[in-house]
Amino acid sequence: MWTPGRIVGETLLSLVLGLLAAASETLEGSAMSDAGIVRGVAVGLAAALLSLLRRVLPATVLLVTAAGMAEFEGLSLLVVVAAWSAGRRIEEIGKAAGTFAAAYAVSLGLSLLAGAFSLVTALAVAVPMLLVMIVVPGLVSRYWWQRRTLTDTLREYNAQLLRERAMVAGQARMRERQRIAQDMHDSLGHQLTLISVHTGALEVDRELTGRQREAVGVLREASVAAMHELREVVGLLRDGTENPGQGSAAHGVRATGEEDATVPSRGVAGVESLVAASRSVGTAVELRRSGEPRPLTPTADHAAYRVAQEGLTNAHKHAQGASITIELRYEPDALVVEVANGPVPETTAAGRSVVSGGQGLTGLGERTRLIGGMVHAGPTADGGFRLAGVLPYASPDGGAPSLARGDGGTTFVGPTGDLREQFAAGSAEEGVPVIDGNGLPKELARAMSRNTRRSGIAIGCGIAALILVLLVVLGIVAVIFLAGESEKAMIEPKQYDAVQLGRSEAEVRAKLPLGNSFLARGLDKGAPPAPKGAQCLTLLSSENGSSQGKQPVFRFCFRDGRLIEKKSFEMRS
Asked: Looking at the keywords, is Cell wall biogenesis/degradation present (predicted)?
């Protein structure tokens, strides 16, 4: 189905070719006669129709146009267009070669039969002219189309390879995640289960005091919570998708399929359970809230919980006995979760070994950056430590926040720091995006374009050089041929003056060219009447005529073996 632009272009091209063909045939006719006008209109309509059909019937249009060009010169421009179209649209190489050979032979043969060229003229002029008009456009068009097709095929093949590579990489990541999940389940799950079982048994020991039983209860609840978090992480690794903030609904499910009501929330609502757990072990924790609560995305809600959890964990590890303050501030553009602890009391034992991997803050920063937020951690003026996370709200339509894309008054996240600016819109998952033909890497697309352009220029220059050499050789041959022909049909005026009347025919002809050249053909048409019973030899003059379009001619007439007349006159060239 043609596009509107192609329809307009084809219509204009057909109109132009038809008008040019009609004008050429009309001017070729006899002084703009009625017959010439009718002939020109008919040839113009035929040219316009053939131009429209050349895409559907390329071989037929080329053959018809090449055959008609011998009789109708108005089709000369159309044959070039038809050859270009045929070279591009005839797919089989054998059919294309046969079509162009037939078109060339038909055009040359009909031109010879119509008497438009002599055999010698055909070899010198018609052969290279038809070669340029029919064969060369077809070859150039076919090369250009094949190069374009090859380039498109290579792009599709490369895109397919990239898609397959992305799928293989995704499968490898999935297998690795499943292996890690299995190892975590088998090792950590076993240890946490033992801790939970032993603390549960110790909690009912009658020899424990109330304070000890309360501490053991805290340990048991912590181990149970750790088991549920481990189950959540294992589920995320196995599923390959992350939807944090819905842990109690999506991952806090027992083997029986029922939800565990004891699993704490993994969002802002779960911060209170973290505070309660810290207070139960004797730590002074204060929870403050300010501002009007606003909805968060699941990922931001989960990140708020993790900020509070990481802040409490660090305070318990490195500032045991210090007071802790947790603030949830609903600012106009984001939720600020801040955990700050005071200085470490002097009564706290020093030198105590604390296990710390040093990856908590790093992972927390990566988590918040993925959702367009940020994390700040550092010492306070009074010798304590402060951890603060800035988390964007959900957009009004419930979608992902637009915080990191440079909106209005948001100043705590720069656009360059947002991972979403590096990928197309969508979920910020680990998977490599599938790359199609329109989304090739810039470096690869640039390299392919540069290589194809260089090779195309090289091949194109080679073809152009070959055609140029061929034309130069044909031109030299034509010049040599025309020089030889001119010696057979042309004399200088002084040679004409040196010939005297009454001399014998043999003597005169010995001093003059034979006149057996195509250049001397037709010089008798429109010439003055020759003497009765005489045989005349008509030759061209080497001088120019008195005006443009006129050619000086010398005629020598013989009768009874003697030169009886020599005459000089001008004819229209």
From this structure: no
